[in-house]
Structure formats: C-alpha cells, structure tokens
Amino acid sequence: MKEKGKIKSIIAIRGVAVALVMLNHFFSERALDIKSDGLASATLPLGHIGVTLFFIVSGFVLPYSMYKSEYEIKNFPRYLYRRAVRIEPPYIASIFLVLLCMYTKHLIGQTVNYSGGLIGFFSQFLYLNDILGLPWLNIVYWTLALEFQFYLLIGLLFPLLNRYNSFKLLIALVLMVFLKFLSTQHSCVCKLPFK
User: Fold this and answer.
1) Residues 44 and 140 in one domain
2) Which of 15, 68, 135, 141 suits 7 as a labelling partner, its CA being 20 to 30 A distant?
3) For residues 37 and 32, what is the distance between their CA atoms, to the nearest angstrom?
4) Each residue of 33-57: b (16+ CB within 10 Å) or e?
5) How many domains does the chain have?
6) Are 180 and 190 in contact (CB under 8 A)?
7) How far does Cα 139 stand from its chain's mean position?
8) Sorting pLDDT into bands at 50, 70 and 90, what band is 184?
C-alpha cells in the first residue's frame, strides 16, 4: 500500500527494526551494567534481526527508487553525493560526540579503551576500519560501513542488472557469491559480521 510515494509496509518494517535494535541496546550489559541477567543474551538475537531488517529494507528501497527514476551510470556522482549528504553529517557529528565522551571519561579518571590510534581514527571517515582490521570508535559504525559499501556496489551494478537479461543477472549473482568467498575476515557487503 502506498501513500504519496511511500510504501506503508516498508515504514512498518523499519519501525519493527528500530524497536528490535533498541531492545537489544537497552538490555545490553553495557547499557544497564547487568552481568548475570539473561536479558542481554536473550535480546541479542533481536538486535541482529533488527539490523538484518534494515539491510533488507535498504536492499529493496534503493534499487526500487533507482528503477522508478530510470537511474543510469551517468547519474552515479549525483547518486553518491545524495547518499553522502544524507549519512555523513550525522555520522561525523556522532564521531565527535564519541570523542567528547571519551575525553570526558579521561578527565574524570576513567580508562578510555580505544586502540586504533590515528590511522584507526581517520579510517572511520572512509569506513575502512573493518577492512584494515582496526577498531571502530563506536562498534555500531560497522553497519554504516556495510551500508556505504552497498551504496557503491548497487550504484555501479544496477544499470547492468536493470538493462540485461536473466543470463547476465546470473553472472552477477555468481560474482556476488565469489566475492563472499573473498571476504573471510573483515566485514564487507558480502559477509555480515554476526552469525
């Protein structure tokens, strides 16, 4: 069902995904400092399901909107710019908020646990931490890295997938499977970091 260009079921799925991720984070050991309660382990799968739902929604909405707008490879720079404008400002603001929290923690004498150094810090801005094997300032940034990789991949492959017949689609899917085998350790669009 649509309302002014929006698909209500997609909005509902996003709402469920948000609720599942929030439940997981709320009952996590770090949030409530509960060491023995089973709530943290019980809600962990819910968080994974929520993140997976977000990826599924993106996997549908983005190609669907590209199809509706008759996206072509010549639109790639504008497409990438629009993705970046939507994600980068809040992402960069959150990085500086995390740094402020870390600095405040240091000022009150608590240990700051970040071992990425300057390279790890600067690689955050290009979403390279998992690829380089460096820690994130905030662990949830891996989701943005996967999202950005997906944006790049779909932005480049969509015109091919949209234009050619099923045989070419089959070749693209075989290529995706091949890419999955190439990704062994690090998070990339072909491999989620959880089981």
Assistant:
1) no
2) 141
3) 10
4) eeeeeeebeebbebbbebbebbbeb
5) 2
6) yes
7) 11
8) very low
